[in-house]
Design goal:
Layout: H1 3-11, H2 24-29, E1 40-44, H3 50-57, E2 61-66, H4 69-78, E3 84-88, E4 91-96, E5 99-103, H5 111-114, E6 119-122, H6 131-144, E7 150-157, H7 171-178, E8 182-191, E9 202-211
Parallel strand pairs: 1-2, 1-6, 2-5, 6-7
Antiparallel strand pairs: 3-4, 4-5, 7-9, 8-9
Length: about 210
């Protein structure tokens, strides 16, 4: 699954993952991170998610990484913001009030370019990547965010029925990726209404990840 796959999805408006409302799991469970307003939240593979506007409305600064410039342009339009746009390394940097979105390959984004991160909200990044890329993603994410606490939303379902994305990420897999550095706390699991894409039963899982004490 390469960049052209995602660019094509945005250009042809095949964005079934884009929710038309703020994710209720974010509203319910983000407070469990106990993050004071003013802190900076990183949203990898953010698209034009309405969740970013919700975080801004709660007083947080937001950083995001997104491959599609089209998605980011639409995001700022929906936020009624005119971004300042500059080149930073291999990324195009869209900057607005309390928001920084880096357009380009997430794996080329460095900790220095990204800047400080106080928490990570991962609703659509881990589950968007095939298994072979998830090890690379989680390793990179830990490095560029300095093991900031995370709120992670994942799916579990029969991958043989629906090929993904979104992909099924089991609890065991999540522990393989993160238990070396984080304490993982399951917060909720919810059956997906009408199943995944209407094809098979699926469960959404919400996790809080906190850095293990040294």
């Amino acid at each position: 699954m390469d960049a052209s796959f995602w660019h094509n999805r945005w250009q042809t408006n095949q964005t079934g993952w884009h929710e038309r409302a703020v994710n209720p799991l974010l509203i319910t469970h983000f407070p469990s991170l106990h993050l004071p307003p003013g802190k900076r939240v990183f949203v990898p593979l953010c698209g034009k998610s309405l969740d970013l506007g919700w975080l801004l409305s709660r007083g947080y600064a937001v950083a995001g990484a997104e491959l599609s410039e089209l998605a980011v342009t639409q995001l700022f339009a929906e936020l009624s913001m005119q971004p300042n746009i500059s080149e930073v390394g291999t990324h195009k940097h869209f900057h607005g009030e309390k928001i920084d979105i880096f357009v380009g390959d997430l794996f080329d984004l460095s900790r220095e370019v990204l800047g400080p991160v106080d928490a990570v909200y991962d609703r659509a990044a881990l589950v968007a990547l095939p298994e072979a890329m998830r090890v690379q993603y989680t390793t990179h994410l830990k490095a560029i965010t300095s093991l900031a606490p995370q709120l992670v939303i994942s799916y579990e379902y029969d991958q043989t029925v629906v090929p993904g994305p979104p992909f099924s990420v089991t609890s065991d897999e999540l522990y393989r990726h993160y238990s070396d550095s984080y304490t993982l706390t399951p917060l909720a699991h919810i059956d997906v209404l009408n199943g995944l894409k209407g094809k098979c039963p699926a469960t959404e899982h919400v996790w809080r990840l906190e850095k293990r004490p040294v």
